[in-house]
TrEMBL record:
Name this polypeptide is given: DUF1343 domain-containing protein
Residue ranges annotated for the Peptidoglycan beta-N-acetylmuramidase NamZ C-terminal domain, each copy included: 227-353
InterPro entries referenced in this protein's UniProt entry, alphabetically: NamZ, NamZ_C, NamZ_N
Organism for this UniProt entry: Thermobispora bispora (strain ATCC 19993 / DSM 43833 / CBS 139.67 / JCM 10125 / KCTC 9307 / NBRC 14880 / R51)
Chain segments carrying region Disordered: 350-370
Pfam name, any one: NamZ_C
GO MF annotation list: peptidoglycan beta-N-acetylmuramidase activity
Domain annotation Peptidoglycan beta-N-acetylmuramidase NamZ N-terminal: ranges: 24-223
Domain of life: Bacteria
Length: 370
């Protein structure tokens, strides 16, 4: 197998230089070399003058569940100050970056390829901050783990832009962090620098890259999770458990009001590349923690045929059809979907699967990989 070489590896090997007097590194546990050396010591060993670290959602060390970051502190391994960026943007984020004293920001985090995952929007906000503060911004590129060919889901309605999406891209967007940075730079009037990977092909899933999988967050344990997440992640906007607090988050779906009809109706749809197994589970955290619930496990049988967004919307449709008195969704679903069209269709009892047509997305204006 030909192994992909990440942007971090190229800088650590001395092939590309970052320069600057004081570098601020934006990273988390996914920022590693193939031998699992973290990016901060790897860059320091390569002579990059890293003087500050910045953590995204879940924190620099990845210890925090969704919706939080780790407090500012000192990194016990490098002694460098750590700044929490989660929940900050605009002037508040500028203040954090300015207080760090850096003159270049370096981004090294592996994303999961879904618009409503927040790491690329942390990158977007820090790129905007770098533009306002006159700092350079460098992206050490990494693979999109679910590939760069297939896209799915609607483009974000600008009226629903926020930390789950800043740019009008599909839910499954097919971009790498470097490509998203270039797209963001056009919007912001800033020119990021990208250290591209070597050897990555757009059709590759992460397990083809030869790189080690490191959990991007606590509820993203495997590539299987990342593959279903663009669809089953929509369950977070409902009163149905998306499997948080289990060993198969986003693959297990259930609620106390679900019965055996749910698995049978999903199987009858004949959705491409996926099967549904009736399942019981008891979440240890999140919705229905400590309560046995009934539902399904999602089993992807053919990656190439599987359409995660269509699958997720179909799950919502079946839930609304079978359990109209119990199933509920709220405004958070709008943020995930990128508009209120899905929620309105569900609340009206309409079939929302027609919303899963063409994305209208032509791909990155400056693709870095073919």
């Amino acid at each position: 197998m030909t192994r992909v070489r990440t942007g971090l590896e190229r800088v650590a090997a001395g092939e590309r230089r970052i320069g600057g007097a004081r570098a601020g590194l934006i990273t988390n546990p996914t920022g590693v070399l193939p031998d699992l050396t973290p990016s901060a010591p790897a860059l320091l060993a390569a002579g990059v003058p890293v003087t500050a670290l910045f953590g995204p959602e879940h924190g620099l060390r990845g210890t925090v569940q969704a919706g939080g970051g780790e407090a500012d502190a000192a990194d016990p391994d490098t002694g460098l100050p750590v700044f929490d960026t989660y929940g900050r943007s605009g002037a508040a984020l500028d203040e954090v970056v300015a207080s760090s004293g850096v003159d270049v920001l370096v981004f090294d985090i592996n994303d999961v390829g879904t618009r409503f995952y927040t790491y690329l929007w942390t990158m977007y906000d820090l790129l905007a901050s770098a533009g306002r503060l006159g700092l350079r911004f460098v992206v050490l590129d990494r693979p999109n783990p679910i590939g760069g060919v297939r896209v799915e889901g609607p483009l974000l309605d600008p009226g629903f832009a926020g930390f789950l999406g800043r740019l009008p891209v599909p839910i499954r967007h097919g971009l790498t962090a470097g490509e998203m940075a270039l797209l963001a730079g056009r919007r912001l009037g800033v020119e990021p620098e990208v250290v591209p990977m070597e050897g990555w092909r757009r059709e590759w899933y992460f397990d083809r890259t030869g790189l080690p999988w490191v959990m991007p967050s606590a509820n993203m344990p495997t590539l299987d999770t990342a593959l279903v997440y663009p669809g089953t992640g929509l369950l977070e906007g409902t009163n149905v458990s998306e499997g948080r607090g289990t060993t198969r988050p986003f693959e297990l779906i259930g609620a106390p009001f679900v019965d055996g009809r749910f698995a049978r109706e999903l199987a009858a749809l004949g959705l491409p590349g996926v099967r549904f197994r009736g399942a019981w589970f008891t979440p240890t955290a999140g919705k229905y923690a400590g309560t046995p619930v009934r539902g399904v496990q999602v089993h992807v049988t053919d990656r190439e045929a599987f359409r995660p967004v269509l699958t997720g919307v179909s799950v919502l449709h079946v839930l609304r059809t079978l359990y109209p008195e119990d199933f509920a969704c709220g405004p958070f679903l709008d943020s995930l979907w990128g508009s209120d069209s899905l929620r309105r269709a569900l609340e009206a009892g309409e079939d929302p699967r027609g919303l899963c047509g063409s994305t209208g997305w032509s791909g990155p204006p400056e693709p870095l990989y073919r």
